[in-house]
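so my prof wants the structure for this chain in the tokens format not the other one, which i didnt know existed until like an hour ago. anyway here's the sequence
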Amino acid sequence: MIPRVLRGPAVCLALLICVGCSHYVTPGRAANMKALGGVMPDQTDVSVSHALEKHPLATLPTGIAIVRVQEPGYQSKTAQGWGSGAYSVVTTRDIENMDAAIAKISKLQMISGIAPVNRLLLPQQFNSDLELRQAAAAMHCDMLLIYTLDTTFTVEDPALPLSVITLGLSPNEMAHVACTASAVLMDTRNGYVYGVAEATEKQNQLASAWTSEAAVDQTRKRTEAKAFEKLTTEIQGTWAGVVKQMASQPSARSEPQ
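here's what i got, hopefully its the right format
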């Protein structure tokens, strides 16, 4: 039986949703509108106000911890998510050339080191990004890079439901595989979001070539691997913007009282 759709979670992160490749750098902190009389204290939701009041606490150069998250109970032919709760963590490098990715990112300016989060540092229950930031803190990394993969399969046949793969399809039917790799770079101490990055890879395959589960899974792995490779390139652009932004702002590295 072929797995239905491999779909990553919309984890509790502000990830960009768009087609193609993109990266975005969080701009400077907002002006104090209360001081200008433009916003009354009770006009901003508490959760939104809390997010806006966060400021970067990391210093440059910095170490970065990296971790992959997927939906709760995630499982593929080559990897299985760890933990329960709001999401799971995948520590098996089934589609990522992590050594190449780390080598590429670690060469960027103002990065003292980058390393994957080890499962031994993770709890069993995940409720928010806090558990991941605690693991990054144990690694003495000031920043945390979280990424996820969202993969879908569709077949051009109105008689078939979308995102369902079955074997024995007509040789003329074209199957489409799309994977969007998304990442968010945040402050280990308080969850301040420095920037996000996203990349999408699409591949087409004649359905007649899918004669086994292994053939389907190979297509999935190729698509996800290419999306991850593109994501590392987008992260380079994001990081360049982060360095420039932090260099132009006054230092605010002490914990708020």
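also thought this was worth mentioning. The beta strands are 22-25, 62-70, 84-85, 88-90, 111-116, 125-126, 143-155, 174-187, 193-206.
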